[in-house]
Amino acid sequence: MKKRILACVGFLITLPVCGQGMDDVEKISVYGQTPLSTSTVSEYSAFGSVQTINAQALSQSQAISLAEHMKNQLVSLHINDVQNNPFQPDVQYRGFTASPLLGLPQGISVYLNGVRFNEPFGDTVNWDLIPLAALDTVALYSGSNPAFGQNTLGGALALQTKNGFSYTQNELEARFGSFGQQQFTVQSGGNQGNWGYYFVANNYQEDGWRDHSESELQQMLATLSYASDVRTIDFTFSANNNEMLGNGAIPEQLAELAGRNAIYTQPDKTETSFQQFSIKTDNVINEQTSWQANIYYRQNEINNINGDDSDYEECESGTLYSLCEEGEDDSLERVHFVGYDEDVWLSELSDIDADEVDGTFNTGFTDSESYGAALQWVRLSHFDASDSLFSFDNEFIFGLGADQAQISFTSNTEFAILHNDSINDDRSVTGIGLYDTDSRVSLKVKTKQHYLYFLNAITLAEDFTLNLAGRYNYADVSMKDQIESGKGSLNGEHVFHRFNPAISVNYQLNQQYAVKLSYSESSRTPSPAELSCADEEDPCKLPNAFVADPPLEQVVAKTTEVSLHYDITNFSAVATVFSTLSYQDIIFQQAGEKSNEGYFINLDKTQRQGVELAFSKQLGDVDFGVSYNLLKATFESPFVSFSPVNPLGPNREVNPGDEIPGQPKHQFKLHANWQFNDEINVGTEFLYASSSYYRGDEANENKKISAYAVTNIYLNYQINEQLRLSAKVDNLFDRHFDTFGTYGEADEVLGELYPDTEFTEYFVGPSRPRSISVSVNYQF
């Protein structure tokens, strides 16, 4: 690692050669220090590193989702296409995750207009709820910055939407593309006097490139704004009604036999119905003092529908027959049907033979209602001294807030028939109207979060900034089982609290060079989903079942980061070295034949460390950026990975230094935009990611997911002041690659259909093939 640090320093020291003849300028990019901040500081004064995206860049790249744009543009950010749906990605940043799927170590906090966007039930992030056209700025903060609160283990993502003062246009856009893609967007913004408005509505539909994978999104956001010399107020309402099919990973051999668009079983559908209302205000008391606040109400209903094969077996006694499952001593135990006595057999309830019931229809419904408020006070001061060396500027921020959520979760497993008699069958399932008693869950959860934080930035002689920060978090998670009570129920009361500190030193060496050094700590409490699924003796199926919970510890992350920055006119570069140690990291242990069956455990220690190199340059009419990152994400304490479907067998020993699956060690990105003339610009995006281990291979004993490279191109043609024509080609060279891998057993479903094929345990998430889209934009 020392050699890499020296290489980074050498890289930046030699950069003046690249920029000879350019005039020196002061860095002008500015960022807020907390989710509520409206006062800004230069990048050199912020904690850690900050990467930003503006509305123009989002529009120019023609990405269909925020995750897609970030994947191609931001350093150290990677996507695993677990569901193969562009609105359900696993976003990985420095080895930490922001995903809509339960069972992953969620370690990135997300804020929309200063309001926490992670779901209260599992800390997950539903990317489909964010209308891309509404975004004004996107900022990705590195490290374990405590000012951004719970879940900021590896970073924080702050999103700001447009209002009637930042966007003053009327715009219609229609897009058509491969695989039945259709998108229609309308947005309008303007202001008069102190009042402004902004509105956007978006409808997106596609058939999906995988079989039976259609999706439809209906998104809306509206903001009413008031602005004066001393006060701004934004009233924002957003709503979504989305339906997404993402049928996930498939066996490697099935991709070869039936095509990469094939699916394993279906459906795997997620429906979201979301609404949020928030008020955000910024108030100036005088030149030195201001205060900011927000208040919000959020309601989200998530309906998960999953068709799968069955782990149940046929059992009989005389003329009676039913379904059984393996007990703890490998004996067969008869299932109990909801609404019937325990001694009732399937043959007494249905004419369907037990051997025909070879599927399951799993449903889960989450209804979460959350609300909260936050308040922040900012004081700017200047202290003079007889010796100018001891004169300094001081910014002090103090904030507090509270969030509360009420969650209702229910799930059921219905016995079903899997339509799998021939290769031409669609492998969907049809329920038979009988449900498994042991798989039922009905849970009510109440969470309370209270916090206090401060940040003090001391600037000496305009070139040296010392940042001190801290945050105290208190969390109370109360769970009440609606089916059972007493021992074995899901009832529980869990309290977590911690103070997280941070310090950074930022020094402007001269007009070109700056160095930043920071240390920060943050934490996250186990989510209700994790607390209810932590029993090794009674694993659950995510998100469809939970069990009585032994306690989990809260996760604590400690990040050290050093970076060297170089800036001159039309050229900037940065080299960063970072290390994050996570204590009591929560991982999901697979405990069944399916990747979503298992339980959560704490690990003593994991580590994510790496190097980032990036530079951007404007050369004539061409803007381009290049980045490289090295990531070493490892387990640092021994444990046994149960992994029952591992090709080498279960109970694999994981040793310190073994790599965390799903994390490519190397990534290289290039993006360029050529303004050919006043009307036409052409751009390209290139991404290379090295190999990574399959999920379930925590011991690093089996083959890896292969490295891959992909290229996109886009064109924008401004026909006149009002009309713009755009086109994009994703995966230009139609490369076939995989971004995700896991283990499973395919023989039960596919063995009879392909008798000459021996299916292995390897399942993959195949890449989207080449796709083309064309859009027309009209402004008036």
TrEMBL record:
Residues 1-19 form the signal peptide. Keywords: Cell outer membrane, Membrane, Receptor, Signal, TonB box, Transmembrane, Transmembrane beta strand, Transport. Residues 226-732 form the TonB-dependent receptor-like beta-barrel domain. The keyword Signal applies. It comes from the Bacteria. Residues 46-156 form the TonB-dependent receptor plug domain. Transmembrane segments: none annotated. The keyword ATP-binding does not apply. Gene3D superfamilies: TonB-dependent receptor, beta-barrel domain, TonB-dependent receptor, plug domain. One of its GO terms (molecular function) is siderophore uptake transmembrane transporter activity. It is found in: Cell outer membrane. Its main location: membrane. GO terms for biological process: siderophore transmembrane transport. GO terms for cellular component: cell outer membrane. It is a multi-pass membrane protein. Belongs to the TonB-dependent receptor family. This is TonB-dependent receptor. It comes from Colwellia demingiae.
